[in-house]
What does this fold into?
Amino acid sequence: MNLLYKSTRNNDEKVTASQAILKGLADQGGLFVPETIPALDVPVEELARMDYQQVAYEVMKLFLTDFTDEELRYCIRSAYDSKFDTPLIAPLVEKDGANYLELFHGATIAFKDMALSILPYLLTTSAKKNHVTNEIVILTATSGDTGKAALAGFADVPGTRIIVFYPKNGVSPIQEKQMVTQKGDNTYVIGIHGNFDDAQTGVKQMFNNRELCSAMDRAGYQFSSANSINVGRLVPQVVYYVYAYAQMVAKGRIRNGEPINVVVPTGNFGNILAAFYAKNMGIPIAKLVCASNENKVLYDFFETGRYDRNREFILTSSPSMDILISSNLERLIYRIAGEDARKNLQFMNDLSEKGIYTITPEMREQLSDFVGKYASEEETAEVIREVYEAADYIMDTHTAVAAKAYKKYAAETGDPTPTVIASTASPYKFTRAVMTAIDPAYDSKSDFELVDELHRLSGVPVPRAIDEIRSAPVLHDTVCGKEQMQEVVERILGLR
Ligand SMILES: *Cc1c(COP(=O)(O)O)cnc(C)c1O
It folds into this structure.
């Protein structure tokens, strides 16, 4: 059976998996969703004996049905290799009464590597399958982590170029240093005077600009996206929730069939949507706890049914979640609107014109698996210190938002369900915020002194990704206004 993908904004647009990966975004700004979510066809007891790559194959083959076995196995083998600092790829560690699924063992030490280490292979394979001869231009907006992970994945990949826009004053110093030191002849990194939502909106506008796209086509280029709107990112993210459940069983932390809760620190809603897909494939996930920082637009949405981005954008210590327009929520809205593209389009138009929409009570009823929780800046710092003192485990700020959300949820409900917390970044990526949470006195030290202190305190080896940038030269220093993004892209591609 060939699984097709349809657009959330137009029921007539249907494409294969490889075409969806190539296009990134559907026409009219829609997102591609699978026509149905396939059921797992391997029992959990078998999955529990498999390594990460094998589980990846069993999950992805069901979504990417137009890839041959060899193609898919090649993509998986090339992605999940020694770029990761552990053969487990995504270790599940039990600390302080929860199971932390560590998704940060890849090349750029954030969970974005889980999908972006495979996306270049999926994309170049898709291009071959569809006889694409244009050079593929990956156009990406980043709140800090996608950018570096995409740059690392696509650097010097033949037939591709990658252009990354990031909010100049909205990322951590280590995140910025990681991006502006990126090597590769096909890489471009640009800071914008604006926030992540501005960057994401600018990128979406270019995707939807027909004139620009035909000028590119004439010059031998076409866009694709490395953002979590691309199904080539969503599908690999489903894998680790299936893997986590199988590992919970393998380690005897639960019985096969026993439900778990999942807590996900959320920004663009891609990671938690993948958990929802895993649930729909048959993994017994009870609650999906959506954890927000002070930009708690999703918390308010789950509480009230009203999505309202008209509010102040707050810069927090978990910058990869500083987002007011969570793109992937559209996939959920479409689904609870009965897969009605017209209805969904109305909500999305309201969002872009008025910044607000309210779903119907019938739609809200279908959200009963989701719980919204949030953590303030103070609570985030507090939980980092608490878990360090209780369990000698140092987590990053994003994971801390989730840990706090979990503690709040558990205290309010008394729900004893075993819980997996998605741990989305290495503490080394947000060293200053993490170390000052443990002791404010650390603030007087330099970023790399803090790296060494963190090493001393945690005993965790300093990741290669950090050692690499200690003395790396800055190779990208372009900064532009949010109105000039298209102009910059046209210059890079020689279109003006
Ligand atoms: C991107 C990111 C998130 C948010 O993930 P979404 O899929 O956008 O919801 C959370 N934590 C870290 C460290 C990230 O890089």
